[in-house]
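ok trying again, last paste got cut off:
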Amino acid sequence: MPTKKEIEQKINELIQDYYKIKDYEFIPGETKIPLQYPTYGAEEVIETLESLLSTWVTMGKKVKAFEKIFSEYIGVKFATMVHSGSSANLLALSVLSSPTLSNRIKPGDEIITPSTTWITTVYPIVNINAVPVIVDVDKDTFNINIEQIQKAITKKTKAIMPVHLLGNPCGIKAITEIAEKHNLFVIEDACEAHGAIVDGKKVGSFGDLNTFSFFFSHHITTIEGGMVNTDNEDYFELCKSMRVFGWIRDLKNKDDIMNKHKNVDPRFLFSTLGYNLRPTEIQGAIGIHQIKKLEGFIKLRRENAKYWIKRFNEYSDYITTQEERPGTRHVWFGFPLTVNKNAPFTREELVRYLEERKIETRPIQVPNIVDQPSINLFKHRVVSELVNSKFIASNSFWFANHQNVGKEEREFIADTICNFIESKVR
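nice, full thing came through this time. structure:
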């Protein structure tokens, strides 16, 4: 009878053979081009299987390895993995509102954030009993408007939480300058912007705390998962503790705490408030292989975007594409399009045409958060009329741009959109 090691080796060989078999053939108009496609392969499956067979499936050495690799990639000192990007936002804000900080975010304090975003950028602000201050975005980048930030600041303002939406870096340097001037925290939501760059520095390294998501649809995935980055060791210590109930187990000063509380079993000693936001070892196992593939995925996305921008340039009277701004690297979570006001067709007509031809589309995340019924459930403040967010909500959408959108797929998408426009303007 074979040993367990021999069986495991045979299984690994079969997994490698399985992923060598191509089961995908693109037939234009018949094969769906989905918004997401699995980014993992044999390496990730074998690594997760090793964790499962070892029975070490809760947070352990593979999570720590991924945290180290990811922090080095982004260019920060510390990274704390959690089980989702939404949890990363919650943890980051919870750290900055911790009673252990002297200059913390307190109940009723205001946090400025964009109106075009994902819903869990805003909800964690409410979860810590702060007040979201909703400001408009730039119509071309979909990112928070710098002038609107300045108008929104009051004596109650405590932080700015910008978003690098759809992989397009926001004006983060200007934002950090405003924050320094007014003594405000910055929490970067880089959940859709893995590898995006501003002036040679990766996003997710500018703020006091910075967040990423590794959900299934993102540039790289751990199926579910998130990360909180920081250069501040005190915040890092809080992140580690608050991620796991407020436990002292991973803290650098745990011995000091234990000595002060000798009457408490040190295995179950809690020094602060906290949650259970732990990732699994399986998520870490996937992450340590995914990060190696990220730059290759980004290269493909950028090549696709460059092609589409060139193809659609002749129709600039009718549709608008995003451009990569000087000094930045856009990583194109998806490819957004905006139907201009004077176009002889609507966004709905174009989207319907694409969907009928198996090209999946989506609105621009939550294009205007004040349209959501949940906005009435919490205190908030809205700055200006949100003209650009309203325009984006009615005129913009995005379609797939991932590692499985190759030459055939990108050409078919471009041909389909160009044919549609030609049929409307002839």
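cool. The domain at 45-286 is CATH 3.40.640.10 (Aspartate Aminotransferase; domain 2). The first helix runs from residue 4 to 20.
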